[in-house]
Amino acid sequence: MILLDTILEHSLDAARGRQAVRRMNQMHGAYSIATDDLRYVLATFVVMPDRWLSDYGWRRLTDRERAASANYYRNLGRHMRIRDMPETFGDFAQLLERYEIDHFRYDAAGRTVADATLDLLTTFPLNRLAPRRLVHRFAFALMDDRLLDAFRYPRPSRADRAVARAALRARSRYVRARQPRMEPLYARQLPQVRGYPDGYDIRELGTFPERGGRDSTAGEHGPAVPR
Fold first, then answer.
1. Quick one: three-class SS letters along 45-97?
2. Residue 93 pLDDT more than 70?
3. Which of 176, 174, 167 is nearest to 130 (CA)?
């Protein structure tokens, strides 16, 4: 979250932005990741916020904002050396839909990661005050059936879905009524990003699976931004 936010805050033209891309590429380059998988994950950053805001935000994105999102992440993808990037928001949406139909299947390792993510969700502020089982039920109620089936999670009841959606739509009405924020709010300022109270060095963020071994930047998706 902090790495992506650093790029957004400082841009790909600034030293900190380039440093964050380099660190991200080093992490990706340490693993054998298919280009289709990289493209899909990038597509989620373009498409899913739009879907979320359409359902639960205090307003929908405009066509210009959707186009800006597609342009921004297409540029980021090129800096990550991801080939054959979609050109428009609609292209990203079609890629996401096609990928999920073709690839969403149950995998035990994927389920392990999903379970860990759900457990992390229970530690966030406010969430940690609720029973773990209730937080899980709320999360299931917001997932689509394709995702639930891929992880073999239980299908929520109609009542669970109705309560979860009503709660988020009530939040959107509350946000709409508040005074508009005049300054940007960055990920490093969020209460759930609490792992670096004394600050951090971008070069030390993330994972280092190859420390002590070969240079982890040597993979196919190694650093694409010159120093």
1. HHHHHHHHHHHHCCCCCCHHHHHHHHHHHHHHHHHCCCCCCCCCHHHHHHHHH
2. yes
3. 167
Q: Residue 28 in contact with residue 80, Cβ under 8 Å?
A: yes
The pLDDT mean for the chain works out to 90
Residue range 102-117, pLDDT digits in tens: 999 999 999 999 999 9
Q: Give every CB contact of residue 223 below 8 A, 6+ residues apart in sequence.
A: 21, 22, 25, 26, 29, 217
| 133 phi/psi in degrees, rounded to 5 | -60, -35
The span from the CA of 224 to the CA of 18, in Å, is 9
Eight-class DSSP state of 211:
T
Tell me, what's the pLDDT at 211? 60
Greatest CA separation for the chain: 54
* Tokens, residue 147: 């995702």
